[in-house]
Amino acid sequence: DAKTTQPTSMDCAEGRAANLPCNHSTISGNEYVYWYRQIHSQGPQYIIHGLKNNETNEMASLIITEDRKSSTLILPHATLRDTAVYYCIVRGLTSGTYKYIFGTGTRLKVLA
Amino acid sequence: DARVTQTPRHKVTEMGQEVTMRCQPILGHNTVFWYRQTMMQGLELLAYFRNRAPLDDSGMPKDRFSAEMPDATLATLKIQPSEPRDSAVYFCASGFEDRAGYTFGSGTRLTVV
Questions:
Q1: Please, which residues 9-48 of chain A have a Cβ atom closer than 8 Å to chain B?
Q2: To bridge B19 with a disulfide, which of A104, B24, B79, B89 should be the other Cys (CB 3.0-4.6 Å)?
Q3: DSSP secondary structure string for all residues of B27-45
Q4: Residue A75, beta-bridge partner list
Q5: Using one digit for the tens of pLDDT, what is the confidence trace for A82-95?
C-alpha cells in the first residue's frame, strides 16, 4: 500500500472549515483514498473515500488532485465534536487483500 | 445503525493467563479485521478474514496469539499466555471488502499486570 504523509496536528476555529491535507505521491491507479477519524477512546469511524473524482457526503468533502498525489479532507463547518485524529489511508488490492495500513494521522483540535 | 459489538469492554488479567476477546460483526459483512492500538505503535493490523477464512495474520505474534471465526456471527482473538506488553486496545472491524468503509467496534481495553 502507498505511504501517506499527514501533518501531525492542526487547529481550527469552531464554525470554520477544516482542511486536512494528505500526500500520497506513490499512489497507483487502482488505489483508493480513504479517510477515517478516531475520537478519543472510540474505534475509528469511516468518513469518506474516493478514487479520482471529488466526493461529498453528509460528513465531509474529499478533494483529490488531478495527478492523485495528494488529497484534502474538508469539514465545512467544524464543531467541537470534530476534535479527533484523522487518518488518510491509501487502499488497494495487495496480494489478494484489501487491508488498511493506518499511519499516525493528524490530530485536529477544534477551538471554541 | 448496525454495530460491531466487542466483549468485554475492559479486561484486567495477570501475566500468563489466557485472554479471549470476542467480536460480533455486522450481519452480512464478509470481511473482519482485528487491530491493536497502543500509544507507541498506533493502530496495527493483526488479522484479516474474508468469508470466515483467514487471509492475513502476518501482523500477529504467532506463538501466543490466535484468531478464529467459528461462525459468521463471531470472531475471536485469543492470547495465551498473556504478557504485560500485550496491554492495548483491541479493535474489531467488519465490512464489505470492495465497498465503502469498514465499521469498527468500540474496542476491548486489555491490561496485563
A1: 34, 36, 41-47
A2: B79
A3: TT--EEEEEEEETTTEEEE
A4: A18
A5: 999 999 999 887 77
- Say which amino acid occupies B13: T
Residue B18's Cβ-count burial label (10 Å; 0-12, 13-18, 19+) is exposed
Q: Which three cell numbers stand for residue A36?
A: 477515517
Give the mean pLDDT of chain B: 94
C-alpha distances (whole Å) from B76 to each of A14, A80, B32, B72, B95 are 41, 35, 11, 11, 16
CB-count exposure of residue B41 (10 Å: 0-12, 13-18, 19+) = exposed
Interface contact B15, partner A, CB < 8 A:
no
Does an H or E element contain B111, and which? strand B108-112
Cβ atoms A37, A86 nearer than 8 A: yes
Nearest to A99 among B48, B98, B101 (CB): B48
pLDDT attached to residue B100: 79
Residue type, B14: E
Q: Assign 3-class secondary structure to A43-83.
A: CCEEEEEECCCCEECCCCEEEECCCCCEEEEEECCCCHHHC
The pLDDT tens digits for A3-53 are 899 999 999 999 999 999 999 999 988 899 999 999 988 999 999 999 998
